[in-house]
Amino acid sequence: MKPTLLVLAAGMGSRYGGLKQMDAFGPSGETILDYSISDAIDAGFGKVVFVIRESFNEAFREFFKGKFDSEIEVEYVYQDVHDVPAGIDYDKERERPWGTAHAVWAARKVTKEPFVVINADDFYGRNAYHAVKEFFEKDEKKNYSLIGYSLDKTMSLHGTVNRGVCHKNEQEELVSVVETLKIGYNEAKEITYPTDDGVNHLPGDTVVSMNLWGFYPDYFDYCEKMFSEFLKEFGYTPKSEFFIPLLIENLITSKTKVVDVVSCDEEWFGVTYKEDKPFVQERIQALIDKGVYPADLWAKNS
Question: Which of 124, 130, 191, 250 has the most CB atoms around its CB within 10 Å?
Fold first, then answer.
């Protein structure tokens, strides 16, 4: 069975200053998302599901219409703040989305096969998609998977970043993901982050999560149960969000699921800040120069 690519594209890009999902980075107007879809097709994925906000549904669909429809099945679903488990009370006036774990749950009606979750505005590298697809093909235990990146291949030169620092055991199984804030370079080009006690250093080869997960459809049942419990406690807390790592931590500590860390020797890059755009454009052009991508990604579909 071909896996599905589930793209989290409902974010508004407040720090970036616009919809990063539709900003051009390639020489023929390609978005980062265009390259992700191309990589998934190359790896043998059969469907892509976009999780978006209904408010920019028309613009999003029109922008990507006709690019890759002939090569991969396409579905759209909405992350709706009012899409919650039946019978659960919550703040009906809330406008803020419920977070990434809830965004994935929004795709439950159209996702019946193993699936991979990515962020729409992150470039993960072609090998990442091949690695997680191969994991599905070899996995007999129905474990979940996380593609792990080396921290030094995920940094920004234009500000600090937040990263999920991964801790794993000798079997390469995930033990925990610790959200670590304001990671950046100091004057000596060392990677550090602030703590209450001062400043801590992180090795460049620290394994971090960039939110590329491999799941099976049983995710939706686990998510519904945990989301219900989350809402009972935080349903009236204005800034509360139900994130994927929170769900994963619960599954691991309860010994419900094993999550294997799949190493990936790729350089991740993304656009947290507007100043990141030239760097991303340069990295994509370098890949085109190496022959990884054509100069016009979807020319044959035009």
Answer: 124
Whether 195 has a pLDDT exceeding 80, the answer reads yes
Q: What confidence score (pLDDT) does residue 19 get?
A: 63
What's the whole-model pTM score? 0.92
Give, rounded to a whole angstrom, the gap between the first and last alpha carbons of the chain: 29
Strands 47-52 and 122-123, bridge-based pairing: unpaired
- What amino acid occupies position 252? I
Residue 25 lies in a domain: yes
Mean confidence (pLDDT) of the chain: 92
Q: How confident is the model at residue 262 (pLDDT cuts 50, 70, 90)?
A: very high
- Other Cβ atoms within 10 Å of 291 Cβ, number: 7
Region 120-133: what's the mean pLDDT? 95
Residue 171 domain-assigned (yes or no): no
Number of domains into which the chain is organized: 1
Q: Is the separation of the CB atoms in 272 and 156 below 8 Å?
A: yes
Neighbouring residues of 167: CB distance < 8 A, sequence distance ≥ 6: 174, 175, 176, 177, 178
- Residue 190 placed within a domain: no
Pairwise CA distance, residues 78 & 55, whole Å: 9
Q: How far apart are CA 83 and CA 256, in angstroms?
A: 25
Cα 3 to chain centroid distance, Å, stands at 16
Check residue 302 and give its pLDDT: 59
The pLDDT of 65-82, averaged and rounded, is 94
Single out the residue of 39, 55, 53 nearest to residue 5, CA to CA. Answer: 39
- With a CB cutoff of 8 Å and minimum separation 6, the contacts of 17 are 274
Whether 201 maps to a domain, the answer reads no
Task: List the CATH number of the domain containing 45.
Answer: 3.90.550.10
